[in-house]
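Please review the protein record below. Let me know how this chain folds according to its tokens.
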Amino acid sequence: MPKGIPNPVDMYGISPRPWGFEVSLVRNGVRYARLFGHASYGGPQQALRRAQAWRDTIVKEHPPVARKDRAQTLRSNNKTGEPGVFSRLSAQGKPVAWLAKTYLGNEEILRAEFDLADWGPAARAHAIGERQRQLGRMVGLARLHPAEEAIRRRPPPDDEATLPPKRSKSEIVRRNNTSGVSGVQFKTPRAGHPGYWVAITYSAGKGSVSRSFSVRTLGYEVARDMAIAERQQQLQAKTSDDDA
């Protein structure tokens, strides 16, 4: 979106990528991020739906901090060690007063000053106490993106349970795949060779299992269909081994 224009609710926290979608949200200094690839979820629409569902879960489970809590975060440019408490210096750079300042919103700012000439060494402690009284008037949650509230309020979609799960690597059809079935490829060892269809399945720590079907012997379509059937048998065997 153009600078200064918030993303619409549907794309809040979601960045389109050439390969899919990236979700990234920050809560209380912790970044929550996950990738949703087109290939891993069966296409762009399914990947986006999954990205939105995960984003909604993070937003609902991790609401913004209370404004009062955020106001007590010590900023990097604070030199007093107390959030919202500042010292006023003279032209010579010496402290002459302590100030307590709190922004409540809607252009309402609370401010109190304690001169060292009147309060002496106790001026700083009085400023700190005043700051705590000011914070007592601060209510509500820290405001983030306008989409946050809409996401937290809306119920989950009716079809959330039917969203496609992430595919395993063995189910992803690669760009160079010519069969439309993962793990099944057509290969030709040299020019002029009729080629063959091969089914191959990898198992972590166990290597690979493969079987080839000759186009010269079986014909193109039959060899392809047999390779696809072989691939399914390999996957079933792999699942059985994993469950054992």
Notes: The CA atoms of residues 100 and 129 lie 9 Å apart. The chain has three domains: 9-62+144-162, 67-135, 169-243. Residues 67-135 form one domain.
